[in-house]
Amino acid sequence: MFAFTTNNQPPSYFNAALWLVSASVIALGFYLLLWHPNALAYHVQALAITWAGFLIVSGFCKTRGFNSALDSPWLLGAIILIFALLFRVQVISASPFLADDYLRYLFDGKLILAGINPYAVTPLSVPELGGADIPKADIKTIYPPLAEGLFAISSWLGGSLWHWRLLNLIPDLLGAAVFYRYLIHRRLPGHWVVLWLWNPLILKEGLHAAHLDIWTLFTVMLFVYWAEKKKLSLAALALAAAVLLKLMPLILLPVWLMQLPNRRDRLITAGLTLGGILLGFSWFLPWHPFGNIAVFLQHIQGYGVLFKVLGQGFGVWQLDSEWIKWLLTSVGGALALYWVFILKRYQAQPTLRLLELFLLLYVFSSMGFPWYLLLVLPWVLIQGHWLWLVFIALSELVFYSYQLDRQSNLLTAAALLALLLAAYQQKVNRYV
Fold it and tell me: Where would a tag sit more exposed on the chain, N or C end, judged by fewer CB atoms within 10 A?
């Protein structure tokens, strides 16, 4: 499976031992995070241990001297696959600590199977289907049509968290395969696939918490792969699927069109993408989720690092949260427009770099939900400075600290410092 670098030296069991130790650290972190009898008491610390193990693995992958010493590819391949399986058993079998979005997913699936348009009713209006027991039961669903189709499939299979998690293994494993093929396409070491298979964000947010965003990650990865392979029609359909799962990937379309060399390609790809999106929504018209999203955004509580710094000021000041939301959104949007249309930052770059926009919008968003960072992972893992991984890890730690009502000023400050250093190093070292 793995196209690793080889040489004629004897196998290096020392290198294998380093991988085993790092994998064991991640496994220990997941045990404390999900399986310890008092798991919530160790939740933040355990997540930090898991990320520490993964950051060491990432360092192995990005160290040239270490890569050149990988003279036993099948031994390393076995270690990667065995622990990838172990981690998935750990997260899929665990109780859903601090995660409840899946309740809405399964409820929407029940609605569709009952012949009810999920955009037309609030959960509270159908208590006989369990609508009163899900989060934000007074708000209609915000998820696009393809997501609703997946929810219906999950409900048809049995309608439990177990069924939804098993369904999420499809984008997880297929996404790893596409990620591997992309590495080969870019002539990068094949064993970097471990950065997907052992990734704490994918395992925790995509499989354990079972967030829908793991499907969006998969379709965005497909889009990047096919776009760089010049299979534009397939890339357009993959992008349409991503938008029909979560609306955010729509921001990639105008930037991608600017990269295409001629008018004919731009018209075809725009037509396929927008046509696919409209076809998906046509199944539910005249009802749609856009008004629901506006209501949802008004009720959402923010955990973003910049939002928390501006809002709390580490106890120094208290600013109006709605004002901060508009300020951050305006600055982030203006910076994105400046990068795309003034600097033309992406025109002569690989399509993978477009995913940087998701990171920009996350940083300037008030939400701070760590699963939103899944979409930027391929860019960070392959091209981004390693400090971005530190920022992602700290952002997740900040989020769960707030969920557990822990003091998080120190973590917030560390995340802010990592953000500033990552942005500086990305510019200085020109990693992309």
Answer: N
